[in-house]
Amino acid sequence: MKVRIHVSLKPGVLDPQGRAVHHALEGLGYKGVEDVRIGRLVEMDVADDTTDAALDEMCQKLLANMVIENYRIEKVA
Amino acid sequence: MKVRIHVSLKPGVLDPQGRAVHHALEGLGYKGVEDVRIGRLVEMDVADDTTDAALDEMCQKLLANMVIENYRIEKVA
């Protein structure tokens, strides 16, 4: 089973990397960009019998820092 | 308009970060994980009149390294 996990900073948490990208896009002449936030994308191949609870646990224990980040699990196939 | 850009390593490109995460998950006792690859997630707020061509250009010029990475643009709202 393919699983895609989107990890993004919680709203309100400063994102210097996103700010740098925003600034760089403006420097390249793109005017319409209002906000940029950078997150992580974890693509995993897991056994078909992996439970949602196990996936949640992996995210909370390792893949996301729950103090400043949110995650979203998307099953692809 | 909200746009989500998924940047991931091309198949065949070594992913040491993904390998480290895979190893760590195994160390935590999760047996069913077969492969892990780590990518970037860029969430942008752009003006509604931003064209697809402009978004493509941003990806190719700045957001993705086309030599080793692929990107996918997803319009959220």
UniProtKB/TrEMBL annotation, chains A, B:
UniProt keyword Nucleotide-binding, yes or no: yes
Catalytic activity from the UniProt record: N(2)-formyl-N(1)-(5-phospho-beta-D-ribosyl)glycinamide + L-glutamine + ATP + H2O = 2-formamido-N(1)-(5-O-phospho-beta-D-ribosyl)acetamidine + L-glutamate + ADP + phosphate + H(+)
Signal sequence, start to end: none
Database matches in PANTHER family: PHOSPHORIBOSYLFORMYLGLYCINAMIDINE SYNTHASE SUBUNIT PURS
Keywords: ATP-binding, Cytoplasm, Ligase, Nucleotide-binding, Purine biosynthesis
GO cellular component, one term: cytoplasm
Cellular compartments annotated: Cytoplasm
Quaternary structure (record): Part of the FGAM synthase complex composed of 1 PurL, 1 PurQ and 2 PurS subunits.
Biological function: Part of the phosphoribosylformylglycinamidine synthase complex involved in the purines biosynthetic pathway. Catalyzes the ATP-dependent conversion of formylglycinamide ribonucleotide (FGAR) and glutamine to yield formylglycinamidine ribonucleotide (FGAM) and glutamate. The FGAM synthase complex is composed of three subunits. PurQ produces an ammonia molecule by converting glutamine to glutamate. PurL transfers the ammonia molecule to FGAR to form FGAM in an ATP-dependent manner.
EC number: 6.3.5.3
Domain of life: Bacteria
UniProt name for this protein: Phosphoribosylformylglycinamidine synthase subunit PurS
Gene: purS
Main location: cytoplasm
